[in-house]
Amino acid sequence: MTPPSSQTRRLILASASPRRRELIARLGIEPDAVAPADIDETPHKTEVPRAYATRMAREKAQAAADPSGHVLAGDTVVACGRRILPKAEDEATARECLELVSGRRHRVLSALALLSPDGTLRERLSETQVRFKRLSAEEIDAYIASDEWHGKAGGYAIQGRAEGLIAWIQGSHSGVVGLPLYETRALLKAAGFDIG
C-alpha cells in the first residue's frame, strides 16, 4: 500500500494554546484539527525537569492519538536547577517564580512528540538558557499587575513585557514561547510533511 503523499497528511495539534498555533503557522502549516489532551500534569516524585517535559509531551500525544493523522504535542517546562517551576495560577505563585529567577539563569525545556497513525513516535527536546536582570520589587509589582503571568510556566511570558526584563538568552526563543520551530520542522520533515 502506498503511503499518502505529504500533501494529504493530516496534522492534529494536541494543544489549545493560541501561541503554539501562531508559531506553527510561521512554518506555513495550519493544523487540520486541534485536539487538546487532558492529562494529569503532576510531576512524579523526584522526576527531573527534562524527563518530566518529555513525558508530558509523549502522554499528550498518546492521549490525542488519532488513526487519521499525525498528532503533534508539546510541553514547556521552566526549571531552576532540578526544581520544576509551576504554571502560575495566582499572584503569590507568580511572585515566587519571579523572585526565584531574578538575577539568575534558569532553563526552559520545550519537549515535542509527534505520533504517527501507525504508532511511530518521534521526539525532540529544546533547551534554552534564560537570565533575567535582577528585578526590583517595583518591577515585580508592575509585571504582576500586567496579568501576563497567568497560566504561564515559571510565571512569565517571554513574548510580552517580560522580554524587556531578560538580559540574556541562549537557545530557542520560540521554544521559550512554547514551540521550538527548528525541532518542530525537523520532526515534521522526518514524518514526510512537505515543508519548504
Automatic annotation (TrEMBL):
Principal subcellular localisation of the protein: cytoplasm
Gene3D superfamilies, per database record: 3.90.950.10
Keywords, sorted A to Z: Cytoplasm, Hydrolase, Nucleotide metabolism
Subcellular location: Cytoplasm
InterPro entries xref list: ITPase-like_fam (IPR029001), Maf-like (IPR003697)
Swiss-Prot/TrEMBL cofactor(s): a divalent metal cation
Family recorded in the similarity comment: Belongs to the Maf family. YhdE subfamily.
One Gene Ontology cellular component: cytoplasm
Signal peptide: none
GO MF entries: dTTP diphosphatase activity; UTP diphosphatase activity
The enzyme's E.C. designation: 3.6.1.9
Site positions (Important for substrate specificity): 19, 76, 159
BP terms from Gene Ontology: nucleotide metabolic process
Name of protein: dTTP/UTP pyrophosphatase
Reaction(s) catalysed by this chain's protein: UTP + H2O = UMP + diphosphate + H(+); dTTP + H2O = dTMP + diphosphate + H(+)
One Pfam family it belongs to: Maf
Active site: 75 (proton acceptor)
Gene name of this polypeptide: maf
